[in-house]
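From the pipeline queue, job 12 of 40. The input is one protein chain; the requested action is below.

Action: predict structure.
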Amino acid sequence: MCGITGWVAFGADLTERRDVVEAMTATMSARGPDGGGTWVRPHVALGHRRLAVIDVPGGRQPMEVSTPDGPVVIVYSGETYNFPELRAELAAGGHRFTTNSDTEVVLRGYLEWGDGVAERLNGMYAFAIWDDRVARLVLVRDRMGVKPLYCHRTSDGVLFGSEPKAILANPAFRRRVDTGCLRELVGFTKAPGWSLWKDLTEVEPGSVVTVDRAGLRTRTYWQLETTAHTDDEATAVAHVAELLDDIVSRQLVADVPQCVLLSGGLDSSAVTALAARELAAHGGKLRSFSVDFAGYEENFRPDELRETPDSPFIRDVTAHVGSMHRDVVLGSAALVDPALRRAVVGARDMPIGLGDIDSSMYLLFQAIRAESTVALSGEFADELFGGYAWFHHPAARDADTFPWLAFQNTYTADRAAPLRPELRTALDIGTYVADEYATAVAKVSHLDSDDEHERRMRTSSHLHLTRLVRAMLDRKDRMSMAVGLEVRVPFADHRLVEYVYNAPWPVKTLGGREKGLLRQAVGGLLPSSVAERVKSPYPSTQDTAYPAALQDQARAVLAERSTAAFEVFDPAWVRAAVARPPETVTGGVRTGLERVLDFHHWADCYGPELSLA
């Protein structure tokens, strides 16, 4: 796992701009704490920061292969889980390897198959290859978008990087944010290609981007396709179980310490049980980690999202599988520390406003990184198997908008409410969301045999797998890589995604339960309490000291005259929010304060040009 960046400029001599390239590369240091390097030629510069996971001594980058017609060079981020098979195939075809890394397999795969190497990879990756033989850059991103990749098209080439901060480090890029940029930040539809920064785009998952003197071109090498599901229920359960066993086994390959993230829910517990079984078969023992808040279990109050605390279920799983477990317990003082907020905003490059949900994850990963380099996660299962409440809530399920936006309870709120009134009017979030929904739904194909309900659920599944899950994956990648931890996502394996996506809704909900197909595939590996547990979201502190501290910090922002936050947010809304009793600062009010504080720190750190007229 690593961070990559680069610059192609056919109208300049980049050997004279090495300092800029090194500055771009340095922004990726957290993603790659184990080393780095640059490769600079007149019209191309590549930068790499490495987190050593496979072939620690031999996998250094940028990695170059010399050919009679010029060098071919790669900077690579991620893991290719089927690299042993690909290596054997390439070796049989005459390729000779000098390292044991998956990076060299991808590079030599390109020499053999061109950019068609993308279709052969199983894994999570974002990489760039400069082919000097034809003076061309090739950018490739994995099918699900587990690993991030951004680019900015220039007049004579392109800037790219694992994260926007790498591109922002180049003085040729203007840090502009206008109303068009802000619509998605507020609307939360995960529009394809969006980034908060004007003229900076996210490379779409499953895409290959090529850049040469003729310009920039994109091709899609993978997308969700609708096919008939012909397996009976028993066969479907067995196939999912078989796939998960193979996936977890592949993703446990590493030359560094590894562990699992355990929440006590069905998804993470399934990964934990499979990983524990695989390691035990080879004489090993699994490490597991969970996040908790001081006094949370003892003082837990059920609400509409969470019926129970996670801790009892975590204890059931760890006792059942015999993992070496550690709870990372956090207090409100640590969670609300402004320095931590700035670190989280810096990790995400934008003021997303998730507060302790993000900051606690950052601290969890920081604690894990002291003991492990790789962690397996249960992320992606809710989107794939239909685990969220809104999949099963009639009003949200049947609404003609994104289900996660239609779902209503006391914790949901108008995301535009804290904004300045004139900005709310200018953004027109309702129209924006409606337009994005129409665009997203138009990309869904159906079978002639699908009835109305099946069409509705297939559409919902497609929206989750092409929109919402990308936001969830980005969050986990940014929080983990900000502390140099690699998080792997077994449920994002494209073979599993293709199969489960096309399973009819009655198969996904076997036994009349949410995620019924997954429950039956893995239930035998888990204690019954966990196998039957309903979905519980990532935890959030219930300590009233936390919202009280948010109010204190927001009062300090109100006292500042120069903050850019009030170019976006309504001071009157903030004054009303800080005047409330702390115990009533919940739901949309608490989230609104988090967003104000995030924006305040983000603007201070990044110095954006705001154009909001």
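Job complete. The first strand starts at residue 2 and ends at 9.
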